[in-house]
Design goal:
Length: 313
């Protein structure tokens, strides 16, 4: 069984794209690599928050209220004596769940609407796109606040609202690619020989739009994290005492900004660093996976080749 060539071929098939992606990420996208490490640190911090945090996220020490950073409390304490570092670590879990969950929902919604609308076309496509136009006509924050007011506060609700809000608008990106692909000769040939719609979609359309779908997923994570922080800041996000970076800025941070500036500094810095890292990693994934950018003049390897050719001359 260990010498089965089919198993070896399957392992090679799945590992080679991942290895090539990592090689290009290291060689061509150093900022993207740094962003990926930041994202990995956030993921690990959220998963192992209980082991990494020195205190519980709601562990109160009234005698140590508003203590500045020290050897006991590395980032200080809030107005209830809770350790700020512990709450930031647990807040990474909230950002991770909402960011990945909402991006997954948005990607699924965008892929389903974009593929179905773009492939079927005709009056159905016109009807769906007028609904998308009406959706995009409303300010995003109004839609988010309305959704949270209807569903209530909580991680599940905010993940669902953010995913639907972003996914409906993001369907335009997938649809634009499908509109081009459905005119390809092999797609028309498949229809001519009687291939079913589901077969054409799953065997030909979906694999070719998968890079765009992956890019949309990675790029939208940062927006989801910021959206959750904004809603929590306004009081429509994750309810206390669950620590959210946006909620920490709004509650104890804003109320004690002058007396204890670290209550606003550390959550804001954590949010900025994570969003920056996710954006850098998402841009790197887009540059590597987008087939329209492969071999372009902006590739790092091509720049190196041109420099070598000029120096040899």
């Amino acid at each position: 069984m260990g010498n089965n060539p089919e198993i070896k071929h399957s392992s090679y098939h799945w590992s080679k794209p991942i290895i090539n992606f990592l090689k290009r990420l290291v060689k061509e996208k150093p900022l993207g690599l740094a962003g990926g490490l930041i994202v990995l640190a956030m993921l690990l911090g959220g998963i192992f928050a209980e082991s990494l945090a020195p205190y519980g996220f709601n562990e109160i020490h009234l005698a140590d209220r508003l203590k500045p950073p020290s050897s006991i409390y590395l980032l200080g304490t809030d107005n209830l004596g809770r350790d700020v570092l512990s709450r930031i670590i647990f807040g990474a879990r909230i950002s991770m769940i909402v960011g990945l969950g909402a991006s997954a929902i948005a990607t699924a919604v965008a892929a389903i609407i974009g593929i179905v609308s773009g492939f079927l076309g005709g009056k159905f496509d016109i009807f769906i796109q007028r609904i998308v136009d009406a959706w995009l006509a409303f300010p995003a924050m109004i839609l988010l606040l309305t959704g949270m007011a209807l569903l209530g506060n909580g991680i599940t609700q905010i993940t669902l609202v953010l995913g639907l809000a972003v996914g409906i608008g993001g369907s335009r990106l997938v649809r634009s690619r499908v509109l081009v692909m459905r005119e390809f000769v092999y797609i028309q040939a498949g229809k001519a020989i009687g291939a079913s719609t589901s077969r054409v979609v799953f065997r030909h359309i979906l694999p070719n739009v998968m890079p765009i779908i992956i890019i949309f997923f990675t790029v939208s994570i940062a927006g989801m994290i910021l959206g959750e922080a904004a809603l929590s800041f306004l009081g429509f996000g994750v309810p206390p005492p669950q620590p959210s970076w946006g909620g920490m800025l709004s509650q104890e941070g804003r109320a004690n900004m002058l007396m204890a500036p670290w209550l606003s500094l550390w959550p804001g810095l954590a949010l900025s660093v994570v969003v920056y890292g996710v954006n850098m990693f998402g841009d790197a994934v887009r540059d590597i996976l987008d087939p329209r950018l492969r071999g372009g003049v902006g590739r790092y390897s091509n720049v190196k080749k041109k420099v070598k050719i000029k120096s040899s001359k």
